[in-house]
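User: I want to check something. If I give you two sequences, will you return the structure for each one separately, not as a complex?

Assistant: Yes, each is folded on its own. Here is the first sequence with its structure:
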Amino acid sequence: MALAELGLGPLGDSLEELRWTFESGKTRSISWRKAQLQALLNFLRDNEEQILEAIHEDVGKHRVEAFRDEVSRSN
């Protein structure tokens, strides 16, 4: 049974796409992996304020703690 058939909506569609990408062998390349990690770092940098605010709203963590524990690249 396909994940999309489990009634997961958009999540099921995303999981199917991720599985297809993995099974295609595309993820084996070191350059692809490095590019994905760089994209993640760019996302964190570009959305730092929104991430810190969301963490504060969700769990009440002060922005300095949230940056240190959740966002900083030194972890």
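And separately, the second sequence with its own structure:
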Amino acid sequence: MELLEGIKSRRAIRKFKKQEVPKETIERIFEDSRWAPVVAAFRGWDFVIVRGEMRDRLADLLTQNTVILRDLFAMMDPDSEKKALEYYKNLGDAPTLMFVTIPELPEEQRWEYSFQILTATTEFMQIWLLAHREGLGACGITVPPYIGRQIQEELGLGGREVIYGLSLGYPDEEPIAKPHPRVNATYIGY
């Protein structure tokens, strides 16, 4: 898959087939994602991949997002809000969940937090594109701190902060792309 084609054809998938994702497929994704452009000094993030009974327990926790994200849903168009509410009932039946964690930092190191998030997010986006290359669908999972702490406890991730999630599986839908407005850019000295 050519890079620009992959970027433009990737969609947030909110409905998945009940087919497990082989560990080998996930390993191929990680093998290539390690080439993401990151700040090497801040390579403190980890990924946790979950399926089975633990996936179901975490999906139950994440259904709380519909209450926590109520204000965000209010900003969406009615169709997007409906899709989001439906998705969060069981994360679209995705068989696999992936979470990004970073080190919990003492107050005097909180400046490092933004670097940890930036570098983790860079690799995370590559994982999303590489999953698309493998024929997988994915959808981002918002993990507010309150729910992140519960996930941390369930997974025994002492000392790690859960910052984001991804549902992963074989797509059972083909969403049509919505228009993507260009970001604003300010040019100085051009």
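Because they were folded independently, the notes below concern the second chain alone. The chain has one domain: 14-169. Residues 66 and 85 are 6 Å apart (CA to CA).
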